[in-house]
Every structure is written in C-alpha cells, then in structure tokens.
C-alpha cells in the first residue's frame, strides 16, 4: 500500500484530541499533534495573565541570594518570575522544578543546569512528591525557600501546599511569590458547542491540571461526559476527571512522546 495512503488512513482512524492547556502552550501542542497525524483541537481551560503585584515579584527576585532554593511550580511561573531580561541567578541558590518543562524554562531563562534540581526524566511522576525525594534531605532548620506559583483571580496564591508543609516541618522558612494569575477563560458559544460535541464523539480530552477539569464543568454546566475520554498527566487529575463523569480515564506521563505513544496504541 502506498505510504501516503497508509498515512491518510491512519489520520482518519486517529481519535480527536482536545488540548486543554493554557492558550500559548495549547497552540504549540495542537500544532505538534497535528504534525503527528492527530485531529487536535485547542480548548484552553486556564487563562494566564501577568502577576497582579509586579513590585512583590521584583522584591522576591532581589531576595534570591538569601534563599537556599526557589521552587517553580510550572513554566508559567518561571516566565512570570523572570519577566525582566538580564536577571542573574545567584550562585548559592538552587532552582527546583517539578518536571522537565519547568526545568527547560529555567534553562531558557539563564539558570545554569548544574543548579537545577528536578525529578529524573524517566521518573514515574512529575510532582512535588517526586521533587521532594530529590531535595528534602538537604533542608536544614532556618533555611529560606521561595515558592514561585500562580494566583487566583484575586491575586491570592493558589495551588497545593504540600511542599510548603514539608519544608515547614523541617524548620525551613517558606516565602511565596505569585508570578502569574490563573483564571477561567472566556469561551464563546461556538467553543461551548465544540465542547459539547467533544463530549459525545469519543475523543480524548488531554488534561494537565485538575483546575482545567473543574473549569470545563463550569464553562459547560450540566454536560454528560460519560461518552468522553480523559487522558490525564497525574493520578490526582484522573480523580478529578472521574468525579466530573468522564466515561474512561487514563493516566499517562506528561511528555509529548508518551502522549503520542498512548494515542497511537490500540484503544
């Protein structure tokens, strides 16, 4: 069979994929998945906006030399924190990342790779627990650690406090910098209709955040998701998808190659 015909048939049989990452990341993932032959649709479920208090972020940057480490919850946290070009990373401060995307963003921002701590590339999961396994034994009472994270629509720090609690239990001082805001995106009726159709066609909804699952329920209320499938990058996100009513939930490592391999495998 000619290669172009085989490729066309593969594309026709590939399931639709609804990418729910924030808009800029969403566009990149959709483009890459389409290049792999998938019918990928951008359905961003988290809106990202700048930090509400730029002066507070600047003060946190200035205090970096006093910290033994700064932990970044995501690539968006890195980009929001390094908003101004030319930020020099202090030699005595470690940069912590929960996954390869955040570690890559730190390198792109100019942090020396030798000062970045993150779970290994072949880790089963990329989360605070996996990061703590790498760095927890180094923390001493009195150490100062900065956590750079997102905030809610009011600019208040949002997200899990698990790592902060571990640090505090070790006697460390924990500071927080809200480097960006996560909010509900604005969807028009066309996108809502697309989501309703995507709830019925058996495609895969790719979730990288429990917040995204919650936002989908708010944007398309009372929708029956029992015919839809959720592909989640962490067990906690999978729990949220089950609670939302998705008929099938699968867990996959967050790397693009892992996701493509899963989508290409027999259903």
- Give the CA-based shape: globular
**In percent, how helical is the residue content?**
25-40%
Largest sheet: 6 strands, mixed
Q: How much strand?
A: 15-25%
- Total E-strand runs: 11
- Secondary-structure class: alpha/beta
Q: What is the averaged pLDDT score?
A: 89
Please give a handful of descriptors for the protein shown:
6-stranded mixed beta sheet; 11 helices; 267 residues; single chain; 11 strands; alpha/beta; 5-stranded parallel beta sheet
Report on the architecture of this protein.
Helices cover 39% and strands 20% of the residues. It contains eleven helices and eleven strands. The strands form two sheets. Strands 3-8-7-4-5-6 form a six-stranded mixed sheet. Strands 2-1-9-10-11 form a five-stranded parallel sheet, sandwiched between helices. Helix 4 runs parallel beside helix 5 and helix 9 runs parallel beside helix 10. The longest helix has 13 residues, at 23-35. The radius of gyration is 20 Å and the shape is globular. The two termini are 24 Å apart. The model is unreliable at 1-12 (pLDDT under 50).
